[in-house]
Each structure stands twice: as structure tokens, then as C-alpha cells.
Design brief:
The protein has 430 residues and is of the alpha+beta class. It has helices at 9-15, 18-21, 43-68, 77-89, 109-118, 122-127, 132-139, 146-152, 158-171, 180-185, 201-219, 222-236, 254-262, 265-275, 281-290, 301-312, 316-333, 335-338, 369-372, 390-393, 395-401, 414-429; strands spanning 187-190, 193-197, 296-300, 345-351, 378-380, 387-389, 406-412. Helix 3 crosses helix 9, helix 9 packs across helix 11 (201-219) and helix 12 (222-236) runs antiparallel to helix 15.
Length: 430
């Protein structure tokens, strides 16, 4: 992947800790392995890869800043030590199945990461001559030197550079391939920000377009989203008595840490398998998840957009999204009449442009202000000294930024899909 990776003695102690070793048991791409069979890789390898790339980016950006005169920054071994530890530990708090169940079931992983860094991992971080609170702040994008935080979390960061390269390889697709070396060699610091030199424009282009295609073809794959929705419905079902996952406050305690170590992917799979032997609606859902029987699409906003855009004289995306909202409400009102259990139906909404270029007028439904936050890639022109957002420089990225693709789908268990499809078709025509 990245060749040989240097691991320093104090980093090895952290890697060997039970808390970090748990990441071997957390899949990087949640339920994607049920779609792309090679996607069995874990957060463990990713975290070490991010540490390696973050260190490379920092050292290269400092060198280029001196060579091109973009900043007076000088190499600081303390900064590199802190950045490497933050990169190594940025995902240490991930819940089972990574982002697949985050937010819908489990609290954001950054909060757990910070508690673990400032709690049970603190002695090892102290031994590495770093302040645990500083590492925690850096993981949460709070740092006195902004460029350090940006190397770890921004539209141009070590995290994305690693996961695109890694996920592309393990899923067996080519969409995540970009010129990683050229991109790193083109980084610099300007005004306390991480920027790209003009010579790296096409590498940055390729990087963003790779993200777009990976989201379209892998991260937002229809079957993968169905499995994630099924798992979320299983975990959130009102007739369950709680999964037993520790809270953010608990994880700082010895007992809470022990519980956290047990809560990995297999722990969640065991819960699913146990419930799949029951005859309850939740048990039937669990059985389908355990047997890899995904819910299937009934209709999408794209389907409705084609029907209603001409009728209503509105853009296809707008007509489709509003139509799916109405249809979702109608289905919910008719569940009893249709003889369909709510656990047999899923709703999914997302945008498949995973970055903000030009500001959107309004966040869309589930998109929070935080998700809308912009950290644009800036291109530095060494002839004029100007900084320009990449979408104002690149024709390819500008075209992406002018249309934000959003999609909403309704899925159903295969046993009721035909019934729901007939109902939906009658509603569309009527």
C-alpha cells in the first residue's frame, strides 16, 4: 500500500495496547464486505496509514513552504510527534461497523476517541512526551496551528488520501486511484492553511473526482446502504432492551473500557445471530441480515422525478425529492392496510457529492450544518502569490460544484416488496 512504514518505539507501545488492537476487529467499510467480498480490511491498517501519510504531508509542506516562500514555517519535531499520534488515534473510538451504524445507532466516534485519549490511553501518550489533551484537541480539529488540524481533517487530508487508496484496492475497483505522490509533493503552507501548489492542480482534480466516484460506486452502493439501514433498524427497534454499548462517559472508566473492548463487529453480529432465531419482526429482520438477504429498492427520487418534473414544470431532482417525501408519508399511513410491518420498510436519503464546493443554499434534510461546513482546497499560484479555490480554477471540479446530486430511496424486505411496488405504482399513476 504505502511500502514500509516507520513506527517509532512510543507509537509501537500504543499500537500494541488492547484499545488500539480492537481496531483490527472493526471493518473499515462496514457492511461493504457483503457486496465487495475483498472489503474485509480494518480500521487498524487505515490508522497506521494515516499516521504515515500525515507525517509525509507535514514534512513536504514545510519544505515546499520554504522553497516557494509561501510561509516562514520551520520544521518542528514536536509538531510532527503530535500529528503522528493524533493521526494514529483519530479512529480509535469507532463503533462496530465504522460509519455504517454511526449517528443512527452510536455516538460519533470522535467523542469516544477523545475520551480514550484523555483517559485510558493518557499514560502511554504522556510517555511519548505529548499532552493527551493536545492530541485530543487535534483529533477534534482544534489546534493552535490550523494547518496541523487540516492535514488530519479537511477536504485535502491524510485520512481521505489513505482510505481512497486502501478502499479502492480492497474492493477491487479502480475509482479511488489518483496520483498520491504528486499530490503530496505539491502541498505547502500558506496563511496557516494547507494548500496545493499550481503544479499539483491536476492531482488535486483527480483526488476529488476519485472521491466522487468512490461514493457513487462503493460507499453509497444500493445494497450496502440497504444492509446498513437494516442493521440500524435492528439496533434501534423499540422492542429491544438496549445493546449494552458503553456511553461516552462510561468509556473513561475501567469497567466501561472493558465493555468497549468487547464491542466490536463480531459482538454486533452475535447479537444479530441470536435474535435471528426468534419469530418476532425484529428476529425476521435479523435473519435476513444474517443470511445476506438485502432489502430491495421499491422506488427512488430519480424514478419519481421522471414522472413529476414534466407534470409540475420543476427540475427533475426537486420534483423527485419532494415526491418521495410525500410517498414516504403515504406508505407510513397505510402500513396496517397493506399488512406491512414498519421494520420491513427502509428509507434512505443522501447526497452523492461528498464535499462542499460552492455553498449550498440550504442543507438538505439529514445534512447538518457540520456536514455542510466548507474547507475548500486552495490552489497557490507561485507567479502571482494568489490563492484560489479549486472550483474556480478547475473546469472539471467547477462542473461538479454546480450540481449537487441528491437521492432518496425507499427499500422493502423482499417478502413485501411486490406488494409495496404495486401500491406505489398505483399512487404514481393516480
Amino acid at each position: 500500500m504505502h511500502g514500509f512504514i516507520e513506527v517509532r518505539p512510543h507509537e509501537k507501545e500504543i499500537i500494541d495496547s488492547p484499545i488500539f488492537q480492537r481496531l483490527r476487529r472493526i471493518r473499515q467499510l462496514s457492511f461493504c464486505y457483503l457486496v465487495y467480498h475483498g472489503a474485509e480490511h480494518s480500521r487498524f491498517g487505515h490508522s497506521i496509514g494515516v499516521m504515515h501519510l500525515a507525517s509525509r504531508i507535514l514534512n513536504q509542506a514545510v519544505r515546499n513552504s520554504q522553497e516557494y516562500g509561501t510561509d516562514s514555517i520551520r520544521a518542528d519535531p514536536d509538531d510532527e510527534r503530535k500529528l503522528r499520534l493524533a493521526a494514529l488515534l483519530h479512529d480509535v473510538g469507532h463503533p462496530p461497523f465504522s460509519h455504517g451504524l454511526e449517528k443512527s445507532v452510536f455516538t460519533k466516534h470522535e467523542e469516544y476517541s477523545s475520551r480514550l485519549i484523555e483517559g485510558p490511553l493518557a499514560p502511554l501518550i504522556d510517555k511519548a512526551q505529548c499532552d493527551p489533551r493536545e492530541i485530543s484537541n487535534l483529533v477534534q480539529s482544534r489546534a493552535k496551528k490550523t494547518y496541523l488540524a487540516k492535514i488530519l481533517s479537511s477536504q485535502l487530508d491524510a485520512d481521505r488520501m489513505d482510505y481512497l487508496t486502501r478502499d479502492s484496492r480492497f474492493t477491487g475497483v479502480m475509482y479511488g486511484v489518483f496520483d498520491l505522490e504528486r499530490l503530496i509533493l505539491s502541498t505547502a503552507i500558506k496563511n496557516d492553511q494547507l494548500v496545493v501548489l499550481r503544479k499539483g492542480l491536476f492531482a488535486a482534480d483527480q483526488f476529488l473526482i476519485s472521491r466522487f466516484y468512490m461514493y457513487e460506486q462503493v460507499y453509497l452502493h444500493e445494497a450496502k446502504r440497504a444492509f446498513e439501514g437494516m442493521a440500524s433498524s435492528f439496533a434501534a427497534s423499540p422492542d429491544q432492551l438496549g445493546l449494552g454499548y458503553p456511553t461516552v462517559d462510561e468509556v473513561s472508566t475501567e469497567q466501561g473500557t472493558e465493555k468497549f473492548l468487547r464491542c466490536d463487529d463480531e459482538w454486533f453480529v452475535d447479537l444479530v445471530n441470536k435474535e435471528s432465531k426468534t419469530d418476532s419482526p425484529r428476529g425476521k429482520l435479523a435473519y435476513q441480515l444474517a443470511q445476506r438477504i438485502p432489502y430491495k429498492k421499491v422506488i427512488s427520487s430519480e424514478d419519481l422525478g421522471k414522472v413529476y418534473s414534466k407534470k409540475e414544470g420543476r427540475p427533475m431532482q426537486e420534483a423527485g425529492l419532494s415526491g418521495i417525501d410525500v410517498l414516504r408519508a403515504v406508505i407510513n399511513e397505510n402500513m396496517d392496510k397493506l399488512g406491512v410491518n414498519p421494520l420491513d420498510v427502509l428509507s434512505d436519503t443522501y447526497r452523492n457529492l461528498p464535499l462542499q464546493l460552492r455553498p449550498y443554499t440550504n442543507p438538505f434534510q439529514s445534512e447538518s450544518d457540520e456536514e455542510e461546513a466548507s474547507s475548500p482546497i486552495q490552489i497557490y499560484d507561485d507567479e502571482t502569490g494568489d490563492l484560489t479555490p479549486i472550483e474556480n480554477t478547475s473546469t472539471a471540479i467547477k462542473s461538479l460544484s454546480e450540481n449537487v446530486p441528491r437521492l432518496s430511496r425507499i427499500y422493502a424486505a423482499q417478502s413485501v416488496r411486490e406488494k409495496l411496488t404495486q401500491f406505489v405504482n398505483k399512487y404514481k399513476v393516480g
